[in-house]
Design a protein that fits this description.
Elements (H helix, E strand, L loop, with lengths): L3 E5 L6 H9 L5 E5 L7 E3 L2 E4 L12 H4 L12 E4 L2 E4 L1 H12 L8 H26 L4 H21 L12
Parallel strand pairs: 1-2
Antiparallel strand pairs: 1-5, 3-4, 5-6
Helix pairs in contact: 1-3, 4-5
Bound molecules: glutathione.
Glutathione binds next to loops.
Catalytic activity: RX + glutathione = an S-substituted glutathione + a halide anion + H(+)
Keywords: Transferase
Function: Conjugation of reduced glutathione to a wide number of exogenous and endogenous hydrophobic electrophiles.
């Protein structure tokens, strides 16, 4: 049976997982869930839609399935591969890498640590971007976000000197 990736029919948290799966050419299925109606998608300052769904898709009801999938910590996205049932985006990314291309997590102890540091830095940037995009914020908060983002991007551009993030191979 193919592994199953569950999420809403949008990019969101699952985006990096889909990219990793495509990069590794993993054969898997996706299970799409309807967005809760109270979950608006905000573009600039207007709420544009509640989902990227289209009429040809059958979207499952997350609340109906949430506690019946055998996930110890039910959440979206999830990854079910036989007996392995995972939630938490970063755990899923690491599991898929570990089981199919462990070098992505770093070859040496030193490289593994570098990968971990980058993971946390980028994850924090991603989270603050999500907050600005999806939650109400005032001009002061936006200004703070932009100042911090500029500082972090500068650090990253100083850090990325090699061919790939931590050096000479994809991680
Ligand atoms: N810490 C979790 C957060 C996941 C999360 O917030 N999922 C949202 C969608 S992005 C959700 O609606 N989860 C379903 C639920 O909480 O029941 C992760 O990194 O995967």
């Amino acid at each position: 049976m193919k592994p199953v990736l569950g999420y809403f029919k949008l990019r969101g948290w699952v985006g990096p997982i889909r990219l990793l799966l495509a990069y590794l050419e993993v054969d898997y299925e996706e299970r799409f869930y309807e967005l809760p109606t109270a979950t608006p998608v905000r573009v600039k300052n207007s709420i544009v839609s509640t989902s990227e769904s289209d009429s040809s898709s059958v979207l499952a009801d997350w609340n109906q399935e949430k506690f019946n999938l055998g996930l110890p910590f039910p959440n979206l996205p999830y990854w079910i591969e036989g007996e392995i049932k995972l939630s938490e985006t970063k755990a899923i990314l690491k599991h898929i890498s570990r089981t199919r291309a462990p070098t992505l997590l770093g070859l040496s102890v030193e490289d593994k640590a570098k990968v971990n540091v980058l993971e946390e830095v980028l994850w924090a940037m991603w989270n603050s971007l999500c907050q600005v995009c999806l939650q109400q914020h005032d001009d002061e908060e936006l200004k703070k976000f932009l100042t911090d983002a500029k500082y972090k991007f500068n650090l990253l551009s100083e850090y990325f000197t090699g061919m790939w993030a931590i050096g000479s191979y994809v991680s």
